[in-house]
Design brief:
The protein has 292 residues and is of the alpha/beta class. Helices cover 41% and strands 16% of the residues. It contains 10 helices and 9 strands. It has helices at residues 46-59, 78-91, 112-120, 135-140, 147-160, 178-190, 209-216, 224-237, 259-276, 279-287; strands spanning 18-20, 22-23, 42-43, 65-69, 97-102, 123-131, 163-170, 196-201, 243-247. Strand 4 (65-69), helix 2 (78-91) and strand 5 (97-102) form a beta-alpha-beta unit. Helix 3 packs across helix 5 (147-160). The longest helix is centred in the C-terminal third of the chain and has 18 residues, at 259-276.
């Protein structure tokens, strides 16, 4: 198999096998991320992809799901992505669902009709690293799009019938803009129909611009308690029937299906964590993290 670097995969997707069709990230300018900082973006040569599929056809011929790598393979145009999906079906004829991640802006180069065709070829579920629905925050962290783009592109997915995940990056706006980040993100997410909303807590990793800005005083990171308070504001204002997943914030187990049905319980758990949580343990947990 042609894996050209560190493999990052969605841990919540029980998908196997993995197939690398791109390397690196097309954007690579988010201020909180170093995952692909030194990896130039390129499409994996089609002959490599076919070699890997031949190998998978021998090792896992009955595979029904597959996850495509790397950072944002969704960026490939329809004319590049469709032949790969067709090749997957040719070598793995029992394939039912293809999973892949991407940026909101990756959807701009595809029409609704093209997305429908990609779904017919197996692309039934994608994960979007949205991070925020607040324009100030999106500009501050260098995401390269705005809230109106989130709405426009997510609505295209809905029209095409493709399920999608949205992520909220807790703490990324800093202390000075925390409330706006939480409220505006919840408002934008609530205008969409994601199957999953996932939240992660900001960790300032070595080599990230946000860490350097924190050291210089240009960025004011939240404490662990403030992270929980921001997450509570987000949850309080979120009104969409979806599954809800939290990671990086370990004060309470808030993950599960049926968000609206469980919303009051989630808020109560956050209230308890804010009032009685072991903030030093949370800080220690975060300081030991190595990557997003």
């Amino acid at each position: 198999m042609h894996f050209t670097g560190t493999v990052y995969r969605n841990p919540y997707w029980p998908t196997w096998p993995l197939l690398e069709i791109t390397q690196g990230c097309t954007h690579n300018r988010c201020k909180f991320c170093t995952m692909y900082r030194d990896v130039p973006f390129r499409m994996t040569p089609m002959e490599w992809i076919e070699e890997d599929l031949r190998e998978l056809a021998q090792s896992d011929p009955g595979a029904t799901t597959i996850q495509l790598l790397s950072a944002n393979p969704l960026v490939l145009t329809f004319d590049r992505l469709a032949p790969i999906l067709e090749m997957i079906r040719r070598y793995l004829p029992k394939m039912e669902s293809v999973y892949l991640a991407g940026r909101v802006s990756d959807l701009k180069n595809k029409t609704v009709d093209e997305l429908k065709k990609l779904k017919e070829l197996g692309m039934k579920e994608i994960s979007l690293g949205v991070e925020s629905g607040d324009d100030w925050t999106l500009d501050r962290i260098g995401k390269g799009y705005h809230a109106e783009d989130v709405l426009e592109q997510c609505h295209k997915l809905e029209e095409a019938g493709i399920a999608y995940w949205m992520t909220f990056l807790n703490g990324v706006a800093g202390r000075s803009h925390s409330r706006e980040h939480a409220i505006h993100s919840a408002e934008i997410f609530s205008q969409c129909r994601p199957m999953v909303v996932g939240t992660g807590g900001l960790t300032l990793f070595p080599g990230t611009p946000l860490l350097e800005e924190a050291k210089s005083g240009a960025f004011d990171p939240l404490s662990e308690k403030e992270m929980l308070e921001e997450l509570r504001i987000f949850v309080e204002n979120l009104n969409v029937d979806c599954a809800f997943i939290t990671h990086h914030t370990v004060a309470a187990n808030l993950t599960g299906p049926g968000f609206l049905r469980r919303k009051d319980r989630i808020l109560a758990a956050l209230d308890d964590a804010i009032a009685h949580g072991d903030q030093e343990r949370l800080a220690a947990f975060r300081s030991n993290k190595q990557t997003l």
